[in-house]
From TrEMBL:
It comes from the Eukaryota. This is Methyltransferase like 4. Belongs to the MT-A70-like family. GO terms for molecular function: nucleic acid binding; RNA methyltransferase activity; site-specific DNA-methyltransferase (adenine-specific) activity. GO terms for cellular component: cytosol; nucleus. InterPro entries: DNA_methylase_N6_adenine_CS, MT-A70-like, SAM-dependent_MTases_sf. Pfam families: MT-A70. GO terms for biological process: methylation.
Amino acid sequence: MLCVKCGSWIQIGDLKTISALHARFYFISILCCSSYQMSVLLSDDRGWLLDACAFINEGFRRCYSVNKGHFRCCFKKQYFDILKPHIVSSSMCQTTGDARIDLKTRKKRKRKRSELNQGELDAEEYHKKVRLFVLEGTQSLLETGHHCGYLTEDLLTVPPKQMSVHECQLAALCDMAKQMLEMENSDAPLVQTVNGHADMDAHLDLFSCLTENPDDIAREVTLMGETYFLPPQSRFLLSDVTCLQPLIRSGDKYDLIVLDPPWENKSVKRSSRYSFLPSSQLKQLPVPGLSAAGCVVVTWVTNRPRHLRFIKEELYPHWGVKLLAEWLWVKVTQKGEVVFPLDSPHKKPYEVLLLGRLCANSDSTTRPQECEIPEQRLIISVPSTLHSQKPALSAVLKPYIKSNAKCLEMFARSLQPGWTSWGNEVLKFQHHSYFTTESVECDT
């Protein structure tokens, strides 16, 4: 394996000998050395161990502001300070050994099977299918993560400082904009560019056309009176499902589309944390019209069986997408423990991604750059404490799309370098309050 800090090669057996302090810098990638792959720390035939915060920071190593000049941004690491599980399982290993998950199945007191509703029975069956794969694959990657120093017991035991969360008003602004704009008669340009000057950017219409930072470095901008950091070569459209026409008018066809829909569930209704979208409305999304031939479509989905069935049996067939794979995102603490007990009857420590490919026309062929998407993989990372902030998938999906692929994220709450993003809170996690900055000399 290659140490991306010093460029030296490390034998697997040598990992245990690296001191904990020094080893934290030996982030090891066995995929490739591109900068945005730095979020991939480890990989094997079962999946990847990711550093989601590192991916964000790679896009902001070089930033520019009209007022500040050149500087560096870092997403506040405290938002990833998950030091202990949300719920501790009685079956979790309490030893100081390498294994962080107990491989022995312990009997648990359960409700009688007759007391479970059909949805719960279906969820049980799905969990039985994936349990062993999650258990063994997670242990393998986490053990190596401990040896290389990324996951460590040498953490502060004091509770992390409660981080403030910016009150996002973007969804409300979208609702207001709908009452003022007539999209079908809009004379807005297809794409507009941020300038960086607050006075000039104040006139940008974020709801009627795509807005972009075309530069190779990140930009600090003031939009609607708030300061945001835009990654390099990123585009976005701030709107909801009723105002997708600007995305369609741009004419871009995407090779990868990632969706994170606001699924309807009881907890969302109770908390009013965000508005949900009925499954039937997802069918109206213009995914086929936005897709290039052979487009890879990836959808985040909750563990509710009815949502899984809807995508497999209705949504993907409606779009002409062939289901190819089911991957799982496993959430762990900084010590390498799953955030919920694996066999918890209420919340599981994983979420599902369904991957498919738009059915190609009979006269088209698979491009040689494309690799076959593996049927099962694990994505393991420390989750953010911020609601619905998912890890970026750019690095792990790169082998399965062409090198110059156009990528789109739908229902996004953040931006990615080189991607187009759409959603009614698309700038939420780009707000300056989530970042720290430091001055740097301009690269020559």
